[in-house]
Design a protein that fits this description.
10 strands, single chain, Rossmann fold, globular, about 180 residues, two-stranded antiparallel ribbon, about 25% strand
């Protein structure tokens, strides 16, 4: 009788426009590594093949009420593989700069059309995080008249909330990988 312990690879992949989601993805990766998981953190355009990963964590920002097309295209392109993977999602946006039930309701409304268009994908968790916005980093400032309001400028990322979410994911994944007798 032998006892085996496996910690399959986790892919954390992300979309970003202005760059702030990158550090969120890296922090999620760090927390998972600290929990003993083998993790790769890669921007969506750099992901070659999801095949080797048993768990995939995908996230990206909201832009004008819609989830990043990179996230949607990634889900579509990998749909068949992701059906058989553990999947978690995360969203970054400014609505979450105040974490209230109302904000969460609005953000769930942003991502609901995407979740409904992939009924076969069943994420075990969806993290809703505040992002950051610096108008000076935006190419073509004309696009962002609405978002250049001073009260929407700033880095609202809540590292405690991000770490706590990632630790929850890490603990959940570890619980699925408890030693079993062969
Ligand atoms: C053009 C533009 C439109 C945005 N639209 C929304 C929106 O509709 N709702 C929201 O909550 N945040 C919105 N945001 C905020 C972004 O989601 C937030 O700044 C996010 O952290 C950006 O992530 P990134 O730095 O990885 O690109 C918008 C930002 C920009 C620049």
């Amino acid at each position: 009788m032998t006892t085996t312990m496996t910690r399959p690879k986790v892919l954390v992949t992300y979309a970003t426009w202005l760059g702030s989601t990158t550090e969120i993805a890296l922090t999620i990766g760090d927390m998972l590594r600290a929990g003993g998981h083998e993790v790769e953190v890669t921007a969506i355009p750099e992901v070659k093949f999801v095949g080797p990963f048993k768990t995939v964590i995908v996230g990206g920002p909201i832009r004008v009420g819609e989830w990043s097309p990179d996230v949607v295209n990634f889900l579509e392109a990998n749909r068949h593989l992701l059906r058989d993977r553990r999947l978690a999602l995360f969203v970054t946006c400014l609505t979450m700069r105040m974490d209230t039930p109302e904000s969460r309701h609005i953000v769930r409304g942003y991502i609901q059309p995407v979740l409904e268009s992939f009924p076969d994908l069943r994420p075990f968790d969806v993290g809703l995080f505040a992002g950051a916005f610096d108008v000076h980093r935006v190419p073509g400032r004309e696009q962002v008249k609405l978002w250049s309001k001073p009260h929407l400028q700033g880095d609202f990322r809540d590292w405690t909330a991000i770490r706590e979410w990632a630790i929850g994911v890490s603990t959940y994944l570890a619980s699925l990988e408890m030693p079993h007798k062969a």
